[in-house]
Amino acid sequence: MSWQTYVDEHLMCEIEGNHLTAAAILGHDGSVWAQSDSFPQAKPEEINGIINDFNEPGSLAPTGLYLGGAKYMVIQGEPGVVIRGKKGSGGVTIKKTTMALIIGIYDEPMTPGQCNMIVERLVNDICEV
């Protein structure tokens, strides 16, 4: 299965009538493995900040998490494993695997829990990545 298929069929899937707004699988270096058409163009410094927060949990909290120029307030996550952000009525879940970042962006009516479930379910399916 291609990485794009994982994005199209697993991350952008329907859950209780809702879909993620955007999703991507990125390498730790920021390289795009696959992404939805709606995924924002992530800047290298944004990816570096995310990777740094996985290595030094809490480093993004004072400044916020940026993705595609959008600022998210960092909320609870599992240090070193998952980063969650909130922006207005939506947010982002970023899960780190051995070689990749799995990113889901949502907006209402999707809930943070639904986004978390989609992203974390995919990570469990491809946990060796």
UniProtKB/TrEMBL annotation:
GO cellular component, one term: cytoskeleton
InterPro entries: PFN (IPR048278), PFN_euk (IPR005455), PFN_sf (IPR036140), Profilin_CS (IPR027310)
Matches recorded under SUPFAM superfamilies: Profilin (actin-binding protein)
Keywords, in A-Z order: Actin-binding, Cytoplasm, Cytoskeleton
Subcellular location: Cytoplasm, Cytoskeleton
Molecular-function GO term, any one: actin monomer binding
SMART domains for the chain: PROF
Main localization, broad class: cytoplasm
PANTHER family listed in its UniProt record: PROFILIN (PTHR11604)
Known partners and oligomeric status: Occurs in many kinds of cells as a complex with monomeric actin in a 1:1 ratio.
Family: Belongs to the profilin family.
Function field: Binds to actin and affects the structure of the cytoskeleton. At high concentrations, profilin prevents the polymerization of actin, whereas it enhances it at low concentrations.
Name under which the protein is recorded: Profilin
